[in-house]
Design brief:
The strands form 3 sheets. An 8-stranded mixed sheet has the order 4-3-5-6-7-8-9-10, sandwiched between helices. A 5-stranded mixed sheet has the order 12-11-13-15-14, with helices on both faces. Strands 1-2 form a two-stranded antiparallel ribbon. The protein is about 30% helix and about 25% strand. It binds 2,5-anhydro-1,6-di-O-phosphono-D-glucitol and manganese (II) ion (2 copies). One manganese (II) ion binds next to strand 5.
């Protein structure tokens, strides 16, 4: 049998490559791995434990919150509070950032979407967790500026997918590695080393029900995909759609629509971390014109149109946007 490399061993091995590393980032990644295992357990038994369904409240973006959203949010916050390596967190489910006074001198902040794909929770379809880690820019108690950094400043990012198996995929800016949760020993084990996205993809993934609300550029792009007989796949959980895109190639897009001229997906804890992964695997991630990772952020919950995946397909959609001069703000 091949030797299993666990996530903890892998992180430890990588840390040794950086002679001055203090181990704080490694500790943080390990704690996120622990939170992921607990969330995975809860997701797996959700149908038995009365934790599916709505929580009768809305989040900062006015969206209805599910019980599992809150459970995952609370778990992540408490794991990160206990870790001592993180001076504050920001979450989709929290109106503003949460400072951690007991670790106010820690170097890092973490932003996350605790549970992505809420509409799929009750129907046993893949959902996920997305996280981004930044080195803070303030001193003392953390400030909003620590969280509003450009995506290029991410020190690490990743996601967990609770699918037919649970996987954790992360990058520290030196390639992308994927780990599968081996339930019997309760460990994430390296299963997908050095993931590379296929350069040429043939799968497109978007909410096609919005076709009439897209600009002409996106409509033309969809037409070209059908002309080329490209496959269409849409799960409705960004993590799952991006994971498939990463492994099989293609494009995931959530463009601007008439109703949502800013797009739907959130820059800081959905698009930036996944853009970092996609770029590190050799793909592209843009808002149709600019790299996602270079977009300026002014608010924790800001949204952006997003196009990410194999270079050929991201370039194809950008060409249609440019040809029709239908950028994000010009949908009629
Ligand atoms: P969340 O569950 O964290 O609110 O995210 C839902 C997002 C994302 O996962 C997915 O890609 C998108 O919403 C789907 O939106 P549509 O239902 O509009 O297609
Ligand atoms: Mn989400
Ligand atoms: Mn969510």
């Amino acid at each position: 049998m091949n030797k299993l490399i666990t996530l903890d061993e892998f992180i430890w091995q990588k840390q040794k490559d950086f002679p001055f590393a203090t181990g704080e980032l490694s500790g943080l990644l390990r704690d996120l791995g622990l939170a992921a295992k607990i969330i995975s357990r809860e997701v797996n038994r959700a149908g038995l434990a009365n934790i599916i369904g709505g929580a009768d409240q809305e989040n900062a973006s006015g969206e209805s919150v599910q019980k599992l959203d809150l459970l995952a949010d609370n778990l992540l916050i408490s794991c990160l509070k206990n870790s001592g390596e993180c001076c504050g967190v920001a979450s989709e489910e929290q109106d503003s950032f949460v400072a951690i006074p007991s670790s106010k001198n820690a170097k890092y902040v973490v932003l996350f979407d605790p549970l992505d794909g809420s509409s799929n929770i009750d129907v046993n379809v893949s959902i996920g967790t997305i996280f981004a880690i930044y080195r803070r820019v303030s001193e003392g108690e953390c400030t909003l500026q620590d969280f509003l950094q450009d995506g290029v400043e991410q020190v690490a990012s990743g996601y967990v997918i609770y699918g037919s198996s649970t996987m954790l995929v992360y990058t520290t800016g030196n390639g992308v590695n994927g780990f599968t949760l081996e339930q019997s020993i309760g460990e994430f084990c390296l299963s997908h080393p050095n993931i590379q996205i296929p350069r040429e993809g043939k799968i497109y993934s978007l909410n096609a029900s919005q076709y009439k609300n897209f600009g002409l550029g996106i409509q033309n792009f969809v037409e070209e995909c059908t002309d080329l007989n490209y496959n269409f796949r849409y799960i409705g959980s960004m993590v799952a759609d991006v994971h498939r895109t990463l492994i099989k190639g293609g494009i995931f897009l959530y463009p601007a629509t008439k109703k949502r001229p800013e797009g739907k997906l959130r820059l800081l804890y959905e698009c930036n971390p996944l853009a970092f992964i996609i770029e590190q695997a050799g793909g592209l991630a843009t808002n149709g014109q600019q790299r996602i990772l270079e977009l300026e952020s002014t608010q924790l919950h800001q949204r952006t149109p997003v196009f990410m995946g194999s270079p050929n397909m991201v370039e194809m959609v950008e060409k249609h946007l440019a040809d029709t001069n239908t950028t994000t703000s010009t949908i009629k």
